[in-house]
Amino acid sequence: MLGFRSVFTTHDNRNHLLPLVREQLDRWIADPKGWDPHALRENRWTTIGEDVRALLLQHEGQDGSASTRVRIVETKSDGRWITQLTVHSPNARERAAWAWVDIESPDPDGEDPRSRPRRAGTPRFLAPTLEIVDAWDGAARLTTRPIVIRGDEVDEVYRALIDTERRGVVFVAGNDGSLPSVPWTNRIANLTRFTIGVASCFVLDGDATQLLNDRLGQAHAVLPGRLRTYRSQVQPDSVVDGLRHRVLSAERIADDSEQPRLARVLASSAQLQALEQPLPASVARVHRMLERIADDMLVNRLGDVGSKRVSLVPSQPRAAAVETRESDRRQDDVNTQQDMLLDYLKIKVGIDELTVDRIDEVVRLIEVGRSSQEAQEDIASRLAQLQAELDETQKAYRDVKWQLEDEQLENRDAVDLLTRSEETVRTLRRRLASMGQAEVAWTAQPSEKDVTRPDSFGELLRWLPKLTHVVFSGDPDPAEDLDSNDPLGAWASKTWDALLVLQDYAAAKADGRWDRDVHGFLENTPDGCHEWPTRRHARDESEEVRTNPAYWRRRVLPVPTSVVQAGTTFMGAHFKIAQFAMISPRMHYYDDTAQSGRIYVGYIGRHLPTGQTN
Fold it and tell me: Contact, 583 vs 491, CB < 8 A?
C-alpha cells in the first residue's frame, strides 16, 4: 500500500535538483542501508543488495527536458518495501523543476480490521534534501523546522493558505506575545517532526497572529497558544469551510504526556492529506512516460533473452586442441576425482567429448539462464506492482462506493432525527403558548454547556473526567486514530452524546429513578435525560462473536482490579457510533452501576473483528 508521498517544486535549484537529490539518495543507499549505489545501471534492473533490486530510468525529451527515476524494491520477511524517487527538470526556465518521492509498504493484517495501516515514515534522505533545496508545495515552503513569521511577513502565510495549487496541509501556531518565542517554536517543531516533506509549518508572533486573523475572519482564525491544521482549498469567505480545519487546544499542546501521541496524530493527518490528493498533471504525464519506458525495457529484454539460442549439438573440435597438463603422480586421486566430475558433466549436458567450444557453449547457456531468470523476476515484480495498483484502485472504488452509501444512510438518519426534534420543539412551544408561556417558549435557548461538543477524539478523551459516573479504562490510541477519518469531528460529537447517555443512566440509577439496564433506558428514556436510538445500541455481541475465541478475545477489555480481580472483562455491550465501511466506529462498555455505581468504557475505535467485517 502507498504509505508516503511527497511532491515538491523548486525554481532556485532547478538546474541542480537531480544531482542534489541523487547525492542524498546515494548516501542513504550506502549508509545506513549498506547497499551499493554504484551498482545502479541506466535503464536496467540491477541487484544493489541482498534481496534488493533497483531500476534506474533516465530520459531526455525532445524539448530538452530531463527525467530520472530510481525505483528500489526490498523484499523483507513482512513483504515488499518500495522506494521510488522521480526528478524532472524542464527546459523552459520559467517552469519549476520537481521531485516526487513515494514509499509503498506491506499491507496491514487483512484479518484484523483494527490493525493500523503501516504508514511509512519520512525517508531519511528527504530531510537532508530539504535542508539544501529551496522546496515548495504550491505557495507553501517545505522546510525541516517551523518558519517563524513576524508582523507583516504574514503575507507569506496567507498566500500559502489560499493557494489552490497546494496539496499538503499547513500548520499554523498562534501567539499573543505571552509565549516565549524559542520554547514555543521548539514545542511546535517537536509536534510536527514527523511531517517533514508533506506539510508546511508556521509559528506566528503576536502581531502576525492578529494580522492573519484580520484577513481570514473568525471562522478560520488561529488563536494564541493553539495550533491549527489548514487543509487544502481554504475558503476564508465560507463559515462552514472553517469546520474542515482542526484546532489543537492549548491544554493539549502544553501537556508533555500528550506530545508523542499528538505528533503521531498530526503526522497521520498530514500523510493522509498528501495521499488523497491527485498528482499534478505535469507529474502524472512524466510518470506515464517513464512507466512506458520501463515496460518497453522489460519486453525488449525478454526478447533479447529469447533470441539467444544456444545449441549443444556436437561440433568439430578446434584445429589446435588445448593440451592438458599431467598432474603429479602423487595426485592421482585428484585426477581421478576430476575425471569423474568431467564424466558427470558430459552426461548432464548430453555430449561425448568436452572441447573449448562446447565448454564456451555451456557457459553461454548458463549466462542466458541467469539473464532469463533475472528478466522473469523483474517482469514478475512489475506485474506485481501493476496488480497492486489495480487492487488499490479497485479497493478505493469499493471503499468510496461503500462510504457513500453509509453516508447517505447516516444523513437520512440525521434528517429524520432533526425532523422529529423540530416537530417536538414546535409541539412544546404551542403547548407553552396555550398555557400563557409564549415568551418562554420562543426565547428560551439551551446553554452553551449543553450544545458544546468535542471536535476530535483527542479532545473527547480530555473531557471524559467531567463525567462523574463514566470512566474510560481503555487504550486511547484507537480512539485518536479515528480523527484521521473524521475531519469534521462528527464521530467525536456523537460519541460524546453516547457518553452523556451513560452518564444520565448511571445518575438515574444512583438516585433511584431507574432500575433497568441501558437498553431499557434507551427504550424509555426518563424526562430530562439524553436520548440515543435503540437500533444503534447492542446489549451484547452475536452468538458468532461470543463463541469464536479470535473475536471475543478482542472484546476482553481492561477495568480496575477493584471491579474485576483479573483486571479485564468481556464487554459485549456497545454503542454503534456510525456506519462507515470497515471503520464504523464503536464504543464498548461494562455496566458496573450495581456495584461501584460507574460505567467503564473499555474501547473506542474501529469496528472490532467479526465474521462479516473479515
Answer: no
Angle formed at CA 16 by CA 11 and CA 20, multiple of 5 degrees: 115
C-alpha cell at 525: 428514556
Answering whether pTM is above 0.85, one says: no
Q: Which amino acid is at 249?
A: S
Tell me what pLDDT residue 310 has: 47
Counted domains in the chain:
4
Sequence length of the chain is: 614
Q: Cβ contacts of residue 316 below 8 Å, gap of 6+?
A: none
Degrees (nearest 5) of the Cα angle 168, 235, 452?
95
Whether the predicted pLDDT of 29 surpasses 90: yes
* Whole-angstrom distance, CA of residue 82 vs CA of residue 338: 46
Residue ending a domain, choose from 415, 445, 475: 445
Report the mean per-residue pLDDT for the chain.
Answer: 86
pLDDT per residue over 542-566, tens digit each? 999 999 999 999 999 999 999 999 9
**Cell numbers at 454, concatenated:** 468535542
CA dist., res. 119 & res. 55, Å (int)? 23
Asked if residue 534 lies in contact with residue 513, where contact means CB atoms within 8 angstroms, the answer is: no
Cα(556)–Cα(49) distance, integer angstroms: 45
Domain containing 512: what range? 453-606
Q: For 531, which DSSP code? A: -
Q: pLDDT of 401-432, one tens digit each?
A: 766 666 666 676 776 777 777 777 778 778 88
pLDDT of residue 254: 93
**Which candidate, 198, 190, 173, places its Cα nearest to that of 268?**
198
Residues 142 and 130 in one domain: no
Interatomic CA distance for residues 346 and 350, integer angstroms: 6
CA of residue 336 relative to chain centroid, distance: 65
Same domain, 122 and 1: yes
- Measure the CA–CA gap between 129 and 190, rounded to whole angstroms: 20
pLDDT of the residue at 333: 63
- Please tell me the distance from the alpha carbon of residue 405 to that of residue 314, in angstroms, as a whole number: 71
Residue 191 and residue 272 share a domain:
yes
pLDDT digits (tens, 9 = 90+) for 493-544: 999 999 999 999 999 999 999 999 999 999 999 988 999 999 999 999 999 9
Tens-place pLDDT, residues 113-125: 444 555 678 999 9
Quote the pLDDT of residue 159.
97
Q: Which residues contact 142 (CB under 8 A, 6 or more apart)?
A: 6, 8, 130, 135, 136, 168, 196, 197, 199, 200
